[in-house]
Please model this.
Amino acid sequence: MDFDRVREKLNILADAAKYDVSCASSGSDRTNKTKGLGNASKMGICHSYTEDGRCISLLKILLTNHCIYDCAYCVTRKSNDIQRAAFKIQEVVDLTINFYRRNYIEGLFLSSGIFKNADYTMERLVAVAKKLREEENFNGYIHLKSIPGASDELMFEAGLYADRLSVNIEVPTISGLKLLAPEKKHEDFTKPMLKVKNEIVRYQAERKIIKSTPKYAPAGQSTQMIVGASGETDKDIMYSATYYYKTYQMRRVYYSGYVPVADDARLPAIGSQVPMLRENRLYQTDWLLRFYGFAVNEILNHEHPNLDMEVDPKLSWALRNLHHFPVDVNTADKRLLARIPGIGMQSVQKIMDSRKFRRLNWDHLKKIGVALNRAQYFMVCDSRHWERRDLDAEKIKGMILQTSSGKFRNQYSAQLSLFN
Amino acid sequence: MNASTTLMYDGSFNGFLTAVFVAFDEKISVADIQKNGRCQNGLFSETETIFTHVEKAKRVWNGIRNKSHNAISNVYFAFLSETEGVEMLLFDYIQKLMRVQNGKYLDYSDSTVLHISQLARKVGREKHRMEAFVRFQLTKDDIYFANIEPDFDVLPLISKHFRDRYTDQQWLIYDVKRKYGIYYNLDHVEMVSLNLKDIHHNKTHKSDAFVNGEYEYQTLWNDYFKSTGILSRINPKLHTQHVPKRYWKYLSEKKAG
Model:
């Protein structure tokens, strides 16, 4: 290995890959049956965290940052004047294996700029995965990027070696895509997605009959959308996320606050703030949809196209629907418990388990871990004390904000500071 | 009044389970369960020394496991937390568990149950952290070596994870605090104690115990760590929340400078 050369390439190609937020290594059940190297952990492991607090679980690199496309939001776009580099297949394999053996990573996340054409690029990505699996006997996690426009045959082969496949949709609306990436067609993104979805469905059906059916992308597929680049509303984003969850059975949709990388009139200027709070609220909404039994139109609809930045989406929904409350935690069903602000799914389960033994009071709930500062306005329990005042939504919101603190608070505070 | 007894055991998990067996078997009114050498006699209690008996321990293990799988792992994890007085807490928990009719005993409004589950959770978190933060370095003897200093005694918990994962390489994980390690010799994992001359921090000084390429890979990893971070999103508080400072000295990417 030519250390200096690899070092230089790694710096360039890791830097270019960092805007891909997905770093999940969970959900694969690939076990080490062959006495080889690696065993995918079902729950996933983050081996370190970057200084911006994101998980480092996989060696996330581009095979190359040469690209024939010129998408405005992308740092490796053709017109951007940056250093270009490309890994050899063997170099990626060596890096992955040696990092893995030292317990630095869970596996490889390989993406690429598009050189020549989609199929040519996809073929190289598949070749890396194939080499890892077949020559190195590697059972760790592999996440491959599906290159938009890649052929069905290649997508099929990719799924045989990879645990997860993903295509980043990047721009949530078709009109936005036309504006920012005029050379790409919406169908280029959805075609590989559809193929992968169909193969997963086929694999799951066949596996029921023949247990030795070769695994096909056991950790499913995911996608990513940029937030705050093309002026879309939270409603646009979440409705399109819901569409991808439903239509393509996505395991995850990621939301990535746009980090300005280009001087382009179509985009926010370089140096403008990354919309991290908005990103956070979108993830909260995503969780409500996937785990708390909310429907997307309950949280975002025609009257409320954007999320409330001051409070979390569940609290914001509760404040708009005060007629559902207060809920009695000792009798309410699971679905309703999960809708009380300040009670998460862990607490819901603990409440369900404990209330078989006795009626719960404030003290029990506090110890279990319920955030009473929010929950107290929306529930009653085994106590004579509860919120008896007839408070309106604004009042409750004000009281909750007063008794809590948030790290983003200074960004949206409407109150004027006294000394300026 | 029945005289209560303090049970002394050897500090091992099997020893503790034997003590529980004896207490149930002889219907002893237990004042306390303590490790040998750390004894502190109560004024009105007698002392009885328990000799570890694997068969007896196994019966208690199976008894708890038949009640619930969740309970047995809670008991084991909480025991490994090495918290002062955890034995009596566990004894109380096991008594309560045995008393209920249906298998599960998940009354989180009971302070013992809640406390045990919280302890188990803490240990579980530490186990998971160690699976993440172990950093192997390749020695000249072709052994991937790592030393760690976990808050709790988690080596017995992580051994399976590493055995399943690294079946084709020899590795050794050494707990500096508790002075023992686990070593995989390409066939099975065994417990070892070492006379470790120096502890391998992430210091800039290079040890000659390791192969030449070792420090090159560490450099590549450190570079990767740096270039994958996004500067405009920097958030040191969140970073230290995920990677608490007490682990930094064994992580090469957190090397100063």
Summary: The CA atoms of residues 198 and 248 of chain A lie 9 Å apart. DSSP finds 16 helices and ten strands in chain A.
